[in-house]
TrEMBL record:
Keyword annotations from UniProtKB, A to Z: Hydrolase
Enzyme Commission number: 3.1.1.31
Protein name according to UniProt: 6-phosphogluconolactonase
Species this chain originates from: Dictyostelium firmibasis
GO molecular function: 6-phosphogluconolactonase activity
Keyword Glycosyltransferase included in the entry's annotation: no
Length: 238
């Protein structure tokens, strides 16, 4: 792949979180200005956690947070209040000072439902949300695991990441915590008007570089689809 397909930004570790927050805020402001609403997809993980916490602390009066809607890019099929859930991460970071907005402004799978119903309900919820934003999210935040997975789309899975039959579907992993996962599909993520990968440390950069020199396709490297869709950014902390 061609590195020119992405906007790769290297930032000192002292500025990484602040610059990442400013990146998200700019897209929120631009989206509200142009469409009256901002829709932001969020991935979990240790790298974005402090970014989300700083975004939750942010008191920028130029943003009308009632016009900002967040959703989970993927989720673990566990109790939403489990410390391993993305719901728990986001509710205690971005929404810690906006509790009154949590229920209506963070769209997430209802994991108390049976798995099939949970997936179908979440897909319908997302479709309704993005209809308000010209058919696609304004931004999705992503990371890439050391095996090359993004969201809960794992390399060489039995279900092709290019399968468009479901916007939301069930995946499993034996390599990471929580076997059962719910994820949005790669085409939905690629359709986002903007994409950003938050990347921390040399080990993740090594995987990223391996992907760029590899001859293997999107089945092995799901991020290929995101990168080639355009408007993809990487914010990298050395």
């Amino acid at each position: 792949m061609d590195n020119k397909l992405i906007n790769f930004i290297t930032i000192d570790k002292e500025k990484f979180e602040d610059e990442s927050v400013e990146f998200i805020k700019k897209i929120i402001k631009d989206s509200i200005s142009s469409r009256g609403i901002a829709t932001i997809g969020l991935s979990g993980g240790s790298t974005p956690k402090p970014i989300y916490e700083k975004l939750g602390d942010n008191k920028d009066s130029s943003i009308d947070w009632s016009m900002v809607y967040f959703f989970a890019v993927d989720e673990r099929y566990i109790d939403k209040n489990s410390k391993d859930s993305i719901y728990d991460l986001i509710s205690k970071s971005i929404f810690k000072n906006r509790v009154s907005l949590l229920e209506d402004h963070f769209i997430t799978p209802n994991t108390s439902l049976p798995l099939k119903e949970c997936i179908e309900t979440y897909e319908n919820d997302l479709k309704r949300l993005v209809e308000r934003s010209n058919g696609s999210p304004d931004l999705v935040t992503l990371g890439m695991g050391e095996d090359g997975h993004i969201a809960s789309i794992f390399p060489n899975a039995s279900k092709s990441p290019l399968d468009e039959s479901q916007m939301v579907y069930h995946t499993t992993t034996e390599r990471f915590a929580i076997f059962d996962r719910i994820t949005t599909n790669i085409n939905f993520l690629a359709s986002s008007k903007n994409k950003v990968f938050f990347m921390n440390g040399s080990s993740k950069k090594k995987v990223w570089d391996e992907m760029f020199t590899s001859q293997e396709n999107v089945i092995r490297w799901p991020a290929h689809k995101i990168i080639t869709s355009g408007n993809t950014n990487v914010i990298y902390r050395e």
